[in-house]
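Data deposition worksheet. Section B asks for the primary sequence of the deposited chain exactly as it was used as input, without tags or linkers unless they were present during the calculation. Section C holds the resulting structure in token form. Section D is free text for depositor observations; keep each observation to a single sentence. Incomplete worksheets are returned to the depositor.
Section A, Depositor: J.P.
Section B:
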Amino acid sequence: MMMTIKGIVLSQKVLGEQDKFIDVLTETGIVEILVKGSAKITSKNGSATQLFAYTEFDVTNSSRNQKNFCHLRSALPIRIFYGLRQSVQSLALASYFAQVILYSALPQASTPEILRLFLNCLHYLSESENNPMQIKCIFELRIASLLGFRPDVLMCRKCGCYLPEKLYFQVENGCFYCESCETSGILMPAGTLQAIRHIVLQDFEKIFAFRIAPHCQESLVTFAEQFLQYHTDRHFPALEYYYQLIRELTL
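Section C:
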């Protein structure tokens, strides 16, 4: 059966000398597509099937070793995100986002929003319109929420304080306590809590539109990363590579 799907290329696996399999994030889940002759110089589908390309694919259903996949007939690129290739750090972050998506059990109802989130993160990384660390935090906290792990950001779990001057956010429990009620967890100022609230509660159209004070950013980065890793229970090599690049730049 022939069908048309739109999606972003998350990963690719070389098959022999000329072919490859690509994993594509679509609105209904992740689809594996066989691309024949992808390594040929004359291939018409080279740019449309490269990593992080947002493409319209015409495919037919196939099977291999009792596993279903699709066979590519043609591909039309919608957005290539050329700006990603200008920064190794941006590529590393995009790879990290892709690994998180690939190794998560995507709830079908939330997959269109996950696709939309990834598209927007790639756009901002490609255009260098936002701080990469801020984009990283937005992705981590928003996708955690879409996967069903949204943190409780409404009030202190013990006394009900809405916006304490300082607080401790506990990754394992997914909630925070004001400084008077608890002293374990990630210590953060009120500004960090407000940023977390914005990311997980705001309408999608507005989640990238905020600024965070420098003294709040460190605790936001720490919490967002630890919260996602705790709930996915995975180690992501691309994230380690991203930090390696940062360390090399600061030497």
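Section D:
The first helix runs from residue 88 to 102.
The chain has two domains: 2-80, 88-250.
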